[in-house]
């Protein structure tokens, strides 16, 4: 009986080529981005800067080059002692982009991951990455239709589903949902209810809840917690959100120290409102732990930093809430091993991504190898965290390459034992890593 191709054994000398081919062709479900469809508005460049500047769908060369990672990097080349932060912020977006291009790409070699990413994206779009100015790129992007361009970028990056971050405490985001109930009816995008302030600073968040018509006291009494659950349910329904997410500071502890009333209030809201609503709806809660906000406020979005979080707190949440599903990513490199070991203890914990300051080749390789060694393939290796649409092209292009390399090494180690590898093994594993594990975790009732 002739076996079909997928049943065929992959020979040692064909292993890397086969893995890279399978990984390269695998459609991706991107589980965490800051991307939006055009219905959320998109800034349109003009001579003085941009119109519709509050639009949330960011794309094109000026947004790419002014990505907050690059703003942080350009202030290392032209420090604020030479260019005051407020002067930079007073410039139109295009002038900011010209400044960054000149100092990070023309007068210096673009070596950082954020710089290299732009060059990868330009080249994949068929543009010459050696231009001395942005004008040729602007001409290209000015001819793109945003909606059609989304399809092109998804095709080039082979991303089949984009997961948004919908921050309900952001007025621009919230008001768009309230004014246009069908705003996110775009099958390419799925929504996530993002609620950082509810746990980071519940007393302050409760003032907004009251303004929005929820009887939520600054102290989480039983009646207040019922109102917080109503608020969450209203927005989960409005967004058809596929999970709930929050970023938490490195200091986050569970249980919270009782001496800290803000932390204690946040923990009460987490335990008595957020987790019960998620459990009832079988929705995962994504905890993104380790971001210290605004360590340099003058850098605005670029001003956040990283510190080690407390992994035992994650374990206690998984143990104390066995009916909840936790998607967890931690920002500190030093937290990764503990998180992997904790995931070995709790099946309701799904580690995901190489987040933000970890989204660099050297660290993606290190973390992914550690995860394979400790978890097999039971994790979500990456998310793009893209803020600008076109970034999908490089963030996934670079990550596929690295993950394929690590996966090849893992297969080589297994093959050395004499275990035969079939093409169907590689295909099954690759689909699990790039979409299956996440989709199964969502669906797990
Ligand atoms: O909190 C988050 O979701 C982070 O990803 C922040 O948005 C951060 O500013 C970022 O863009 N990281 O890549
Ligand atoms: Zn993010």
Verbal overview:
The chain has 445 residues and is of the alpha/beta class. Among the domains are: 53-142, uronate isomerase, domain 2, chain A (Orthogonal Bundle), CATH 1.10.2020.10; 164-351, TIM Barrel (Alpha-Beta Barrel), CATH 3.20.20. Helices cover 50% and strands 9% of the residues. It has helices spanning 15-25, 61-65, 68-77, 85-90, 93-106, 113-124, 135-142, 146-157, 171-179, 196-200, 202-211, 222-239, 261-281, 311-320, 336-345, 361-375, 391-416, 423-443; strands at residues 28-30, 44-46, 49-51, 159-163, 166-167, 189-190, 193-194, 244-248, 285-289, 291-292, 305-306, 326-330, 349-351. The protein has a 6-stranded parallel beta sheet with strand order 5-7-8-9-12-13. A 3-stranded parallel beta sheet has the order 1-4-6. Helix 1 packs parallel to helix 18, helix 3 (68-77) packs across helix 5 (93-106) and helix 14 (311-320) runs parallel beside helix 15 (336-345). The chain is globular. The two termini are 40 Å apart. The model has no long low-confidence stretch (mean pLDDT 96). The structure holds D-arabinohydroxamic acid and zinc ion (ZN). D-arabinohydroxamic acid is lined by residues 34, 165, 247, 288, 291, 301, 304, 356, 385, 387.
Helix content: 40-55%
Mean pLDDT: 96
Largest sheet: 6 strands, parallel
Please state the structural category.
alpha/beta
Remind me, CATH topology of the domain at 164-351?
A: TIM Barrel
Count of individual beta strands: 13
Present as ligands are: D-arabinohydroxamic acid, zinc ion
Q: Figure out the total of helices.
A: 18
Question: Judging from the principal axes of the Cα atoms, what is the shape?
Answer: globular
Superfamily at the CATH H level of the domain at 164-351? Answer: Metal-dependent hydrolases
Biggest sheet: strand arrangement:
5-7-8-9-12-13
Low-confidence stretches: none
User: CATH class of the domain at 164-351, please?
Assistant: Alpha Beta
**CATH 2nd-level architecture of the domain at 164-351:** Alpha-Beta Barrel
Radius of gyration: 23 Å
Beta-strand content estimate: 5-15%
**Terminal-residue CA separation:** 40 Å
